[in-house]
Amino acid sequence: MENVLSILFCLSLFYVSLTLRVKGYIAVLRSQGIILAILLLYPFIYDFSVYGVIIPLTILIIKVFFIPRYINKIILDLDIKRQVEPTIQQMTFLPLVIASMILIFLATHIISLITKIDVIPFASGFSAIVVGIYIMIFRKKLIVHVVGFLIMENGIFLFGTAVASELPMMIELGVLLDVFVVVFLMGIALNKIRSSFEGIEVTQLGRLKD
Amino acid sequence: MNGFFSNTGNILFAAVFAIQFLAIVFTGLKNDRRALYYSNFVLLIGLVSGLFVTLSSKLFFALPTGPQNSLLNNWIRLDGLSFYFLFVIQLAAIPTTLYNFSYLRHYMEKKIGIKNFILFYILTIISTQVIVIANQAVFFLVCWEVMSISAYFCMILEKEKEEVQKGSFYYFAASHVVVFILYIFFFLLHHQTGSWFLSDYHLSFEDGAVISTIFILSFIGFGIKAGFMPFHFWLPQAHPVAPTVMSAFLSGVIIKTGIYGIIRTFLFIKPVPEWSGWLVLIVSMISAVFGVWYALAQHDIKKLLAYHSVENIGIIGIGIGIGFIGSANNLPAVEFLGFGGALLHTLNHAIFKSLLFIGSGIVCQNLDTRNIELMGGLVHRAGYIALFFLIGSVAISGIPPLNGFISEFVIFTGFFSIAGELKNYYPILMLIMVVGLAFVGGLAVACFTKVNAIIFLGSERKEVKHFHTTIYDYLSLGIFAALCIAIGFYPAPFVEIVQRVIAASFNIQPSSTLINMDWFYLSAIFGSIVLGIAALLLVKLWHHKKYGSRVSGAWACGYENLSPRMQYTASSFADEINTISGSILLYNKEIDKSEKPFPTPLKFESHSRDFVDRKLAMPAYGFLKSFISKIGIFNQTDIRYYIAFILIIITIYSLIAFLWT
Question: Does ipTM exceed 0.85?
Fold first, then answer.
């Protein structure tokens, strides 16, 4: 079950590297949030405990409902164009993603011979981190950077579940807090930037340098 | 659970920190004045109750025995050393917080937002307290980072000034280097022991070169924070630009966390070999001698005090060095004297340095300058401030009746004790060290004679319309001065505390006492000194009554047209001693001599620049900067390039880690 969900997660990464619409990105965020929540909820079907359900439910609320809505609201409020404006061709971006993923899966396989880890969740989480960083590097829009960061966070989460079967409470809360802070900060930043800059493109942030 | 740390103790301890965290809530108030008063008041309550809890712990009444006290899954652990530093921090923070009330009022009049400052001030104080009780390496590092960064945010209160940006950046860069070194330090410790808990680290130098590396790393990392001489260059840059409250706390308390780190590392790796003792001793001696020498050449009062911090850290380090040598040769008595002197001087320095910084802050705020050459005659304006400042000066110079003398006395005794215990060539070496420490004391006296005479005596150089002081100024200075006098005249309880701390944490037999003398005699001698001075004063009064007295302007030796410019200046006072070591102090004078037949206005300037800053740190930084700016790809301003760099670095790191295993 974990492997199936992880592969679904990887598919969502392929979709995100192909689509040109911001809406698609948000849909991917939603689906990834659902996948993560199911992944964490799955063990509790047989062995129910209230304490263990708190974190998956929080993820469900925050990652699936709250954050995508907030991003949608920003897009509507600021009237951002619905295209992602990549800096390289999609046909170059996809092979890059695929090549990195192959490398990561191979490396994970080699690591799994030495230490005990779940290969597929570990590699999927790792790929999500890399894809998140790629999105931040090769996209112009600031709002897309936020999405890239969130995908990276999801990757770290999956990564964490693969390494330790039971995440320490502190780390889980830390991950959630991180996401919260970033989204709010970026939202504020976007609002402020619009008042002084014409568009909302990362290229223009360079002008802020003194 | 044994003794104090039953459940009540835990709850009390948690309550103290909860109260301090509550103070943060009040910084959210709209009104600046209310935010200041409420949050500082709550913080004060937290600190005072914290001091009571610390003092009521078992440590200060009896030697704690049995299992160590730990809380929160062993993340927090309280042993003698932690308690002692907690005591020092809370003791020094209370009067400093009191001074906050009067200091920040000045900024409110200027319409500078102070809420952020209060917030980060509270955070700094809390995190500094947590550092000394943290028992988990990652937790320790997190608190360390919070402390460094919130202190930085406090420093940039007047961020629009260019000198503030420059000076605080020095601090910021130095803190980052420290954290980087500490990461390596803790990773090595973890690698050696396989544990993240500080209480599990028991290593010995026989484990190989890695232990020496750990020791050197801790000495450099914590040494930068503490400000030992080759690494001190951030101190004189950061202290002058920081708000006075922050420079008092920085100098009095935060640099002591470096000392805490070094002593804590010693507890991991004891017994240490003798070379480490000599290393610490020599570096500390250099810090002490040159710290005070640089101080003598400064005109900026806060910079001068910053160099005195370097000097006093040097004196503390000398004590630690003596302790190391004692540990290497298995001499518990020497160890006791060395670490005892160091810990006692840590407490004393926290007290008198905070006093001096706050005193100088009051003067600077009223005169709107930090330059000593523009001050003068302030004893007629604020007599009590002058008195308190004098008490602090006497204490820091190590002159008998006050507290500075007590700790230096213990350290001197340590030297003689080494010379007595280890015969051979040691007496000669120790004699050199004794002369060095005495020389430091002499220069400190010279320096504070200069400071007191120029600032408070003579006639006014700069017009002061109204010297504004508040009750809080007198309160905070008064508490510090009272502590200086109390420790000086009645050292017995404080020596007792230090003795218990060492016996509890360092595992030395309690039978060896700190010094085989009755501290009562010292009190008696000091009492008679004071009585003697009082008798002389009475004789003087009697003389005045009988023969009358004549009053004239200061320095008016028969001149008619008295001018403030006829007085001794700070530069002329210190000129001779500075020219001796001009090449190391980088002391140069610019005299604008006139050759014309008719006199024209003359000019004289003298400067001293920091050797390490000018000749080592800045050239290295400049080289690095020019090297990197030549690589075109590093000059990008776009954030996406930065992210790409991060990705590349992570890839390289993971490749290395991959190949390693």
Answer: no
